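Annual report, structural modelling task.

Input specification for the 3,4-dihydroxyphenylalanine complex:
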Amino acid sequence: MNDLASVIESARADFAHAGAPAELEDAKARYLGKAGLVTERLKSLASLPVEEKKARGAEINAAKQAIETALAERRADLAHRLLEMQLAAQALDVSLPGRSRGGGSIHPVSRALERIEAIFASMGFEVADGPEIETDWYSFTALNNPENHPARSMQDTFYVDLKDDEGRWLNLRPHTSPMQIRHAQAHARRYAGTAVMPDVRVIAPGRTYRVDSDATHSPMFHQVEGLWLGENVSFRDLKAVYLDFIQAFFETTELKLRFRPSYFPFTEPSAEIDVMFEHGPLARRWLEVSGSGQVHPQVVRNMGFDAERVIGFAFGSGIDRLAMLRYGIDDLRLFFDGDLRFLRQFA
Ligand code: DAH
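The model returned the following structure:
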């Protein structure tokens, strides 16, 4: 093997050995750099006799070209390997299943509430919202509760460690009935001094609180208050509206309603509303779903209306109870435990 052939071979071996671009450039310098093996040989041409120069020059140039070709190949090789490594590091496996966040769902009480709102909205009722911390006047006095009524007692109502302007303790509203007063008052103010006959149709759903806890009572529960006041709104309208509502809510006409005489200070006459299904697991039992009655004239006055002109009905229904009946749930506490095994069934 002549010396040039061994230089080419050694250059190829060095290039192959270089694992990174910088090493390759070092190897290149050893052959093609200023003091490189090939460069030195080119320089040595000067000392050769003229007749040898041409042939030797051509040989050295051929060797130089062979080394340059090997260098270019190795450069391309290394660049390709680098790209492969980068691609492998960023690899996306498009066949992997996506990371799921878990589907949310609407709580059964919220579901019941949404249905109630939609049904009453279709009958022209507004939906009102009000404070959960109430004054004594809105929770009791305006609703015609006598001063010593047991509902005011500490055993039934949660009190807040704050007093209102009259020096009375604020309470966590024990029912949604204060919203009858608040909403009607706003209407009465709007219509005061005009000849327009008021037509107040509203439901007020929300959280309510009582000192009570067992399978069918929770210290926090939900009620929906209903109120319709106008010139000639009678008990008959209450029956029609409530029957429409219950039939729509339970999606069946195969049920009966019963208005059972009762007592509430804010209505006269007053009735509990019971429902009986003709079919299904709850068939042929009267189930209480609501209190109701004709709004007491004193309450109408407390709202700011003329009780000689304005008359109407009100009701207060337990939303949790309606949801329990609709979904066949026998323990109210399941709604508030937050157990996903229960809640997922409504997803
Ligand atoms: N506020 C009553 C309760 O909490 C329910 C109720 C009864 C509301 C009769 C009414 C009504 O509006 O007319 O038990």
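The mean pLDDT is 93.
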